[in-house]
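I am writing to request your help with a piece of structural work I have in hand. Thank you for your consideration; the sequence and its tokens are set out here:
=====
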Amino acid sequence: MPARPSASASNKRSATAAKPGDPRIIAVVNQKGGVGKTTTAVNLAASVAAAERKTLLLDLDPQGNASSGVGVRPRTVERSVYDCLIGRASFKEVLVETEVKGLFVAPATQDLVAAELELVDDPERATRLKTALSDLLTREKFEYVFVDCPPSLGLLTVNALTAANRVLVPLQCEYYALEGLTHLMATIDRIKNGTNPTLEVEGIVLTMFDARNNLAHQVADEVRKHFHVFDSIIPRNVRLSEAPSHGKPVLLYDAQSKGAQGYLGLAHELLRVKAESS
């Protein structure tokens, strides 16, 4: 097994710092690609919206996969999150309504790659997203905001962690999972000590889980010793991998699939946590 997470990153979920009426702004983060991060952001957002909570899916990944995953092709977008970050547009101007009632998306394009370079000398570079998002949330009553972060710990992810009040980490149960988790938690600690002292880890969600794999169970058991891990586990599922090619969350593609049921269960857990903290 790889090294365990460091002590500073091993705290279980603590009491909420957000006020009961505040929206839950959840950064979906993992610096490693291919772990189900965008799949989680898209399908969890859709599942929460299906529970009649007004929800925003904010795509902060230049690949734009979260946008296309809900039917918004980046090449068809005139304005995007990039325009909001550089102050050329407001979030209200870029929002697109999706097929899921109550779910809106702020789409991303490859222009976001330039944002990190253009903002590098800006003294407010880490708070650009927070400022732009705050303006939207004073006008629109979103209950949940899910931010799909790029697979890195660069400036875009720092902006997401600064704007969020919660972090959700999709984790594939593989050999190097705990090592990567340690680096991520160290970054979260730095953000808490700097631009966002109220940031908390909502929990870890196990993704692409293969119950036949002994290592997967070993990693899961080790993670549970250090973090809050959601009961809902997202299995490897063909329907989950097919849904993005149709521009739909799996809830619209095949609601009875194991993948869809996994995210519905995860949404239920999130909603219960917020209700208990209110």
Remarks:
- The chain has one domain: 7-277.
